[in-house]
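Exercise 4. Each item below gives a protein and its sequence. For each, produce the structure-token representation.

Item: Outer membrane protein assembly factor BamB (Thalassotalea litorea).
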Amino acid sequence: MLFGCATDDEEEDTSNLVAELTEITAEFTPELLWEQSTNKGVQHYFSRLNPVVAYDKVFTAERMGEAYAFDQATGKKIWEVDLSDIEGTRSFFDDRVSARISGGGIAGYNMVFWGSENGIVYALNQETGELIWQAKVPGEVISNPALESNMVLVNTVSGALVALDSQTGEQVWKADQNVPPLSLRGASGVVSSSGGAFIGNAKGELAVYIADSGQQGWATEIGEPSGATELQRIVDVDVTPVVFGDKIYGISANGNLAALDMRSGREIWKRKYSSYRQLTVDGNQIFATDEKGHIYALNRNDGTEMWSQLSLTNRDTTGAVSVGDYIVVGDLEGYLHWLKKTDGSIVARYRVDSSAIYVTPVVSEGLIYAQSRDGELQVIKTPE
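Answer:
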């Protein structure tokens, strides 16, 4: 028999181990207000589907195609539609084919909008769920659109930024972006401000397009290729930029967190952080979750690091949202964690269910709307 053993010089690689949760001294107990199930959720697929709070309702969807509207106060279901058979043509004997809903949503113009990996954008009446229009775009829609000047602005995986008429779904303009041969599975959402549509791209840039025409304005590189292989040199900016005042903030999957002048694209400051998770700007602080699940607070004006929280390593920590004196993140085991804004200490914990919180929770009027991979939607209050 042969036996193998590690030498003293060989150390076990622990860089990818998931951190175990440690005991905390809870300062309060989060309160569940209501919960609903959204069928099968997103399961194990990559998804950025998020709840949308608008018109006194909570809109949400699951990957197969079920879209819902719930009463914001009570959680009572108002309507449900099946986007996989939105025109009602499937017979009793036909197999259900997934609509592959993966982008959005966003609400406005008395409608709620969802996108799919099939390259279809759906516009539903927010009161009834009735289909107003559906439009085909060139590429998968796996991030949030934006609304601007009576248009729906959609960024696709194929590099097409498309403006659709919000009332008809007809294409108003299209801007094509070059996508490198190798890039991450992702696409930046669109943020609109002051007549511009701001996005990140797979070349490691933040860029702006004139919303009325689709003409490109400035483009500023914030990613920094490094490493010997093409995989190591990926610099995608897949996080939706954040506009705050006259500045715009973005982060690359391999590069930097940067603050730019919104009008000129001029770099104001840049710091070495890498992420594909949502950024949050709150007052004079920026909260960022890096690719290892570490959470950082930085000074918004100069990028100086104020604190770091490293105890959630490799827990697929979501981006942070601001709730009063705290920020809240989710993780791969369905937990929400409350961190103090002042020092990053974890002061409360709550479990939504045993599947992951896969997307940054949504906050509206101080309430947290969290959705798990298995389709559990919960509304949680932070005690004052």
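Check: The longest strand covers residues 101-108.
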